[in-house]
Amino acid sequence: MAKERLQKVMASAGVASRRQCEELILDGVVRVNRRVVDELPAFVDPDSDVITVDGRRIKLAERVYYLLNKPKGVICTNRDPQKRRRAIDLVPSSERVFCIGRLDADTTGLIILTNDAELTNQLTHPRYKVPKTYIATVKGRVDGQAVEKLKKGIWLAEGKTGKAVVKVIKAGHQESRLEITIGQGLTRQVRRMLARVGIPVKTLKRVSIGKLKMRNLSVGAYRPLTRAEVAALKRGVKA
Ligand code: URA
Fold it and tell me: What is the pLDDT of residues 39-48, one digit of tens each?
């Protein structure tokens, strides 16, 4: 497990604000594995180190990680004035979880839910380009030029999107299917990219996030991530 700043771990356990925790550390009332730690910076492993403040052990919320196959109409924010069904409503957890990134309401597929704010910040930072693969079912036949444009990057309001891996996996008169892999996570990025090249989307589904694949997770179902999967995600943000 990665080392984290002591004051941050204390703050996330509800001891006090980060600033106040720094003062507690400098005051010499904090011990890590029985040893007083009164200098900063100090780093701990929240999974294995025993941290006490004034002799009392701090209790950390267990980190939880789930993979959900989000159905259509379900939203990824925790607060919704319109009271629509939320992804967190589908994953009963004793911990308060949130989505890592977003899928728009109409898009189905894989989304990670966790209470690990650190990993969430890292994975959603533009610096980390975790590849995400989508299957878009679109109207009509897709022309080769449009596919080439998608691969090279498309100008959106935020700038030009990065290179995409695009495969036509079904080409029909009525309907075609594209597999699109992108590294960024701009709002409604795939839909906007396809709209820019004049391809009307019927459905959009995310089928992988990094090494995490849909496999046999049915729509609306979820499963906890394995330790190895969590470790791989964390390695991915350090690479
Ligand atoms: N691109 C989209 O258009 N929608 C999503 O939810 C994710 C990527």
Answer: 999 999 888 8
pLDDT of residue 2: 66
Q: Catalytic residue at 38?
A: no
- Domain residues of the chain, as ranges? 4-57, 65-126+212-238, 132-209
Which residue's alpha carbon is nearest to atom 4 within ligand 1? 188
CATH class for the region spanning 65-126+212-238:
alpha beta
**Fold observed for domain 4-57:** 3.10.290
Question: Would the pTM count as exceeding 0.85?
Answer: no
Among residues 27, 47, 89, 104, the one annotated as catalytic is: 104
Q: Which ligand 1 atom sits closest to the C-alpha of 103?
A: 6
Task: Give the HSE-up count for residue 64: Cα atoms under 13 Å, Cβ half-sphere.
Answer: 19
132-209 shares the fold of 4-57: no
Cα–Cα distance, 103 to 99 (Å, whole number): 9
Give CATH for domain 132-209: 3.30.70.1560
Distance 48 CA to ligand 1 centre (A): 38
